Amino acid sequence: MDEQFFDSLYEAAVVPELWPQVLRRFQEIARGAGAVLVAVTPTSNRWISSSPEFDQLVATHFNRFPGNERTRRLIERRHAGFLRDIDILSEAEMADEPVYRDFLLPQGFGIGVATLVASPTGEAFILHAEREREEGHVEDDMIARFDRMRPHLARAMLLSARLEFERVRGAAQALDAIGLPAAVLDRNGRALALNPRFEALVPAVAIDRPSRLGLVDMAADGLLASALQATGRAAGTTVRSIPVARRENQPPLILHLTPIRGAAHDIFSRAASILVVTPVVVKDVPTADVVQGLFDLTPAEARLAALIAAGHRPREAAAALGIMEETARSTLKRVMAKTGLHRQADLIGLLRGAGVAAGTTD
What we know:
- The chain is of the alpha+beta class.
- It has three domains: 3-163, Transcription factor LuxR-like, autoinducer-binding domain (Beta-Lactamase), CATH 3.30.450.80; 179-279, Beta-Lactamase (2-Layer Sandwich), CATH 3.30.450; 281-362, Winged helix-like DNA-binding domain superfamily/Winged helix DNA-binding domain (Arc Repressor Mutant, subunit A, Orthogonal Bundle).
- The chain has helices at 3-14, 19-29, 52-64, 69-77, 85-88, 91-96, 98-104, 140-177, 196-199, 218-230, 263-268, 288-294, 299-309, 314-321, 325-339, 344-351; strands at 34-40, 45-49, 83-84, 111-118, 124-131, 182-186, 191-194, 206-208, 213-215, 241-244, 253-259, 271-279.
- It has a five-stranded antiparallel beta sheet, sandwiched between helices. A five-stranded antiparallel beta sheet has the order 7-6-12-11-10, sandwiched between helices. A two-stranded antiparallel sheet has the order 8-9.
- It is elongated and about 75 Å long.
- The termini are far apart.
């Protein structure tokens, strides 16, 4: 048994950033060209690999050939051990399967060894090493060796997943301690954890639906849905800071959707983002840095928004900033798009703490 490997394995369970190092060692033992750890759900595959070069191969494997027989059969077998390609497909099937015929075989690959570890949360982890074909199929004695290692590998994967979730939940609790409601969401927007202050907003502001966390304010709920769909993609113009209208005794709110980043963290945590709520209690005209902190605005956008909140018309704001009126108006359009508002009066009301008229759409 490789005691040094096990030491690094359990260290990676606590420090997820060390998993690439573990994968490189697994690759060496398997005499492979690369190794990858994949988190599989019904709707997505996330992975971390042993090298940037092998990462490109893995990305092509999943992006060009989603639902391929190689992965599908491994998952279907639910075998409590390691399997080779020849254990799940015949040579004739490989020759006819697109992922082999059009991708792996022409590049000299298609010799793999892998195991699947099911998680209590419904996810599954696949640990896979890919050999070059000239190395030949993985030997029986190496399969036996990997099977002896598998309980340690499974414990480390599941421990990483649990610890990563606890880290994220701890962040939500820390935000509660400083007075901010927060919710931890998965990739579909379902609530994994709510801190006590966020729980207090249910059901007046938020709705904990089975499909995803929702908002009572329909306009804000639409913006939240769009922001959740964009999580993990380029930000573009998608709203990430979402205004919620003032209602009765509730002040207007700004909801900030913050993605959870990091390759190793993405693998082991079902959490994809944290939703943090900031009440707008500004009674005076906010400064540009306050405005920028409330929304995902550039410094130029924040300066213009602050002047608009102070009651300046776009022409007056342009003169104060030393820019053309046309530039000021195009900048204001971007501000309105990022805040999800449609009227200048609503922007002024929101930034000054007066709130948006509920249901405003024009």
